[in-house]
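Shipment paperwork, digital attachment
Item: protein structure file
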Amino acid sequence: MNDEKTLTGQKEFKPFIPADRILPEFTLTSIVLGCFLAIIFGAANAYLGLRVGMTVSASIPAAVISMGVIRVILRRDSILENNIVQTIGSAGESLAAGAIFTLPALFIWMKDWGMPSPSLLKIALIALCGGLLGVLFMIPLRKALIVKEHGVLPYPEGTACAEVLLAGEEGGSKASVVFAGLGIAAVYKFIADGLKLFPSEIEWEIPGYQNAAIGIDVLPALLGVGYICGYKISGYMFAGAIVGWIALIPLIGLFGADATIFPATVPISELGYWGIWSSYIKYIGAGAVACGGILSLIKSLPLIIDTFAKAMKDYSNRESSNNALRTDADLPMSIVLIGCLLVVIAIWLIPSIPVNFIGALLIAVFGFFFATVSSRLVGLVGSSNNPVSGMAIATLLICTMILKSSGMTGQEGMMGAIAIGSIICIIAAIAGDTSQDLKTGYIVGATPKKQQIGELVGVVISALTIGAVLYLLNAAWGFGSKEIPAPQATLMQLVVEGVMNGNLPWAFIFAGAGIAIAVEIIGIPVLPFAVGLYLPIHLSAGIMSGGVIRLFLEKRKSKSEEIRKEEINRGILYTSGLIAGEGLVGVLLAILAIIPFRSTTVAGAIDFSSFSLGKTGSVIAFLLLALTLFKVTIWYKDKNKTA
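Attachment content:
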C-alpha cells in the first residue's frame, strides 16, 4: 500500500476513490442485500447475545459477503456498493445488541406480574426511536471524530473493514494476505467454538492467592483487535482488568468472607471469583465507565461545540452539498435537527412507549451524551468491546432516581426506566456502529450522506424485525432460563429494582468512579482502563497479546524504516482478515444454534467437546495462530521481489 493509502501514520490522507470520481453506490442491489444481511445478523446476534452476553461485529462479514455477491456472482466491480451493503447490514447487529441488553427485562417483569408480553409494536417503536437517534446524533460528530482525528483514533473494525474492501478491490498479494487471515480464523473459530475440540476461553487459579485467577480468550478477533489498536490501548485495558481480577476480587473475597452483601444472595465465600465479578466488579466497572464517560465528554466539549458551530454556520450560509466535495457531504443539519426533535416528541406522545415528558427529555440529554462517548470509545477499543451495557447501567441509575423522585414509581416507573435505558442503549450501540462505518467510508472514499441514509435504512428494517426474534426466543425458552440467560438484561432489571426499592450497592458504584478519577489524575486514558475493569480479564488478555506483537514489530531492528512499515501494514491486512474470519463463523454458529436437528440443534450435533484437547490444546492453538502473524510479517518473503 502506498503512502497515500496507508491507514496509519500518514501525513496527508487521500481516500482510495477520489472525490471527483463517481461510482455506483446507493443502488437497489446494495439496499436489498444490505437489508437482508441486517435481518440475518440481527437475528443471529440477538440469540448469541442472550446466550453468552456478547455479540459479533457484522461490518466485516457483511463486506465479505457483499464482495462475494456483487463481484463474483453479479460480476460488478464497485467498492462503494460493497461499503453501503456493510453499512446497512451492520445496523442489524448493533440494534440487536442494544435491544437484547435491556428489553428482555420487560418480558421478565410482565411474566412476574401476570401480564401479557410487551407488544411487537412497543418493541419496534422503542428500537426504531433509539436507532434513529443513534444515527442522527452521530452525524454532526463525523468531521470531528472521523476526519480531524484520523490517525489518532484507530477505529479497529472500521479500519479492518476498509482493508478487506481495499484488498478485494485491488486484488494481488494484498487480497491474499487478508483472505489468508480470513480463512485461518474461520477454520480456527469453527474448530474451537463449533466442533469444540479445544476451549476458546481458558483460565488458571493463582496458587496461594484465594479467588485470584487469570484467563484468556484464545480467539483470532481479539488478537486482531489488539494488533490494530496497538500496545498502549491494549495495555490500558489489560491494566484495568488486572486491577479487577488480581486486586479487587481477591480483596472482596478476603474481607467479605462469610458475609452476604447485596446484590449477592449467598455468602461471598461461596461465590468464587466469577461470582464476585458478576455481583460486585461489574458494578465497580459500571461506575468507572460512567465516570470515564463524563470525564471524556467534559474534555471533548470544546471539540463538540466547535463541530456544532461549524455545522450551523454551514447551514446558515446555505452551502449546498453539490458545491462541496462528494466525500465531505453529510445530511443537511436542518434534517438532522428536525429529525431529532420529531423522534423525541414521538417518544413522549406515542402511548405504546411508556415514557413521559421527563423521560423524553432525559433521552435527549443522555442519548447525545452516550452517542458522543460511544463514538469516541469505539475509535479506541472497537465496537466489539464497546460497553453499551455499562452505559445503560449508568443511565438507569440516574434516570430511575429522577423518575422515582418525580413520583413515577412502581410498575409504571420501572417500565419507564427500562424503556429509557433501552432507547439510550440502542443509541450508544448504533452511534458506535455508525462511527465505524463512516471511518470505513472515509478510507475508501464513500459519500457520507449516502452512508448515513444507509444507516437509517438498516435501522428501520432491523427495528421492524427484532421484536419477532425476541418473541420467538422468549416463547421457546423464556428469558432468564438456562438456554437464554440474558445476563445484561437481568442485571438491568436488578439495577432498576434496586433503585426503586432503595437497596442498590452504591458503594461499588462510587468505588468505580473513584478509581476512574484517580486514573485520570495520573494521566492514563480513563475509558480503555474502565472498559478493562468492566469486562472479564479473558477478553483484555486476548487483546493484549495482539498489542504485544504489534509493539515487538515496531521496536525490532529492521533493514530499513520502509521495510518495518511494510511489515506492520501487512500485519494490519492479516489481522483484518482474522477479525473477518471469526465474525463470519461466529454468525454462522449463531444461526446453527437455532436450527433444530433431531433432538438437539445443528450446533449441538457437531459438538465434539467430549474429545476436547483441554487447556493445553488451547494454548498450543493460540501460539500457532500468533506465529502465523509473524509468518506474514517478519518471516514473509516477497517472491516477486526475489525473482
